[in-house]
Amino acid sequence: MLVLAVFIAVKGATATPVDIAATPWDESHIATLRSASVADVEKVLCGNGRPCEANIDHFEWADIEGNGKYALVCVFTYGGKVQTVNIYQRDGSGKINKQSIDLEGYGHEDLRTSPIRDLNGDGKKELIINSGFGEGRAMADTPLTQWPMVYRLQNGQYVEASRSFPGFYDKEVLPPLEAKIAALEKKLDSEAEAKAAGEAVIMDNPSSQPDIDSHTSREQKEAIRDSEHLALQQSLRDHILHVLGRNLTAEQENEALAWLKSPDYWVSKYAEPTLEEVGGHQADGR
Predict the structure, then answer these.
(1) pTM of the model
(2) Rounded Cα distance, 11 and 60, in Å
(3) Fewer CB in a 10 Å sphere around the end CB: N or C, the chain?
(4) CA 239 to chain centre
């Protein structure tokens, strides 16, 4: 499931319904296809007899293979949360073929303006799909952040291929992430006293996951939240580096080891995926 969608919404209503099934999915008819409404799309994909099991939140037409033929990319929601991205392609006989990408985790805040892009200049479009990362203290807080996964076309199907696009991460993902980390580190330097006091409250509480809203001051709560957010952003950076096949620096690896010693359950929890990916820290984890 995803909390928020990742594609540009196309919900243009028209006075006359567009029969997508009878309209060729090609460059000469793209204006007509893009004038279709969500209801027009649902009529073709779900039929007239019953509603869709999940709602189409929004959709986009894209020439994903660079050959003038368009695919229909739909984001489906269930219970108000996005859970699936479907890619529909039409073959020469008019049959509509579907590929589903079920999204694990949850989505999050920002909409990417160009989620369907040619990242390597080969004429084929990649999909950039935000995947939720990091649990919060409550479902309302989950996910705490996200990372964009890259899917590429392979034999007409999209496959996860984030590792093949290091330039995308080096230019567009890692720099703003490092800036967030630096800003949080600077803020926490000024919150050292409040953070220590908040952690002392956590240690004195019999619950392993105490409600910090009820047991800490406003300053202590903010410092604890900032500490959790910092560990999460660092964990996300470490995960992206792992996906790209890069080793962590000694400093980055020591950060994860330090999280294990935190009295804050959530900070220590963020160490698990990083140390599992690094390997060799089973004893530390226990």
Answers:
(1) 0.83
(2) 9
(3) C
(4) 13
Which long-range contacts does 177-181 make (Cβ < 8 Å, 24+ apart)?
177/233, 177/236, 177/237, 177/240, 178/237, 180/233, 181/230, 181/233, 181/234, 181/237
Query: What is the rounded distance in angstroms from the CA atom of residue 268 to the CA atom of residue 259?
Result: 5
Count CB neighbours of 87 within 10 A. 22
Q: Are 84 and 73 in contact (CB under 8 A)?
A: no
- The side-by-side arrangement of strands in the sheet containing 157-160 is 116-117, 126-133, 145-154, 157-160
The CA distances from residue 27 to 62, 64, 94, 113, 145, in Å, are 10, 12, 16, 22, 37
Is 223 in contact with 188 (CB distance < 8 Å)?
yes
Check: CB of residue 96 under 8 Å from CB of residue 89.
Answer: yes
- Annotate 46-94 with DSSP letters as a single string: H-SSS--SSEEEEEEEE-TTSSSB-EEEEEEEETTEEEEEEEEEE-TTS
- Per-residue pLDDT of the chain (286 residues), as tens digits, is 333 334 444 444 444 788 898 999 999 999 999 999 988 888 888 776 556 766 787 889 999 999 999 999 988 776 666 678 889 999 888 888 999 887 765 543 333 446 899 999 999 999 998 887 877 776 666 667 778 899 999 998 999 999 999 999 999 999 999 999 999 999 999 999 999 999 998 888 777 677 787 788 999 999 999 999 999 999 999 999 999 999 999 999 888 888 888 888 888 888 887 878 776 555 555 5
How far apart are the C-alpha atoms of 227 and 218, rounded to whole Å?
A: 14
Say how far apart CA 68 and CA 27 lie, in whole Å: 5
Structural contact between residues 32 and 18, judged by C-beta atoms closer than 8 angstroms: yes
d(CA 212, CA 228): 12
Q: How many other C-beta atoms lie within 10 A of the C-beta of residue 191?
A: 20
